[in-house]
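Hey, weird one. I pasted the Histidine kinase/HSP90-like ATPase domain-containing protein sequence into the form twice and got a warning about non-standard characters only the second time. First submission, copied straight from the form history:
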Amino acid sequence: MQVHCESIALDMPAWQLLDKPEVLSHTKIVHELDVFDARRDVLKMALSLGFRNDQAYSLVTAMTELGNNIVFHSVGGYLLLQAYYALHELTGEQAIVALMLIAQDSGPGIADIELAKQEGYSSINSMGCGLSGVFRLMDACRIESFPSGTRVTATLYSANGWER
């Protein structure tokens, strides 16, 4: 197994990251239309939570790439979107810190993660922009790959001044 890990960072005085994320969306992915449905819903959610347009579209583009990877490289999987919040210790105000996208598939796994992340690399003769694009669009990414499947976790921090 190869793992590349970054976690949510919270470096804001008087704010405490809440332990439990809120599940915003959980979509079973088998066909391309499943990815389309998830894309539409996630875009609305990101915008309604105060993410800027460019951030929302980065999230949706990354989600589309990861969802299509599930369709083209595995026998199915899911896309999960979670929201992480922080609580201000003095005022009790709650604010969104980040959205975390998790793509889990039941495929053969990725033999060489570093190679798969390279721009232009493709195992199926495509453009090879998927994983490298996700790493460019999102603030933090992690890939865990096993012979029974791959899990990609990609995080986008809100525009509210949280550390990246």
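That's the output from the first submission. The warning seems to come from a hidden character in my clipboard, not from the data itself. Residues 113 and 161 are 31 Å apart (CA to CA).
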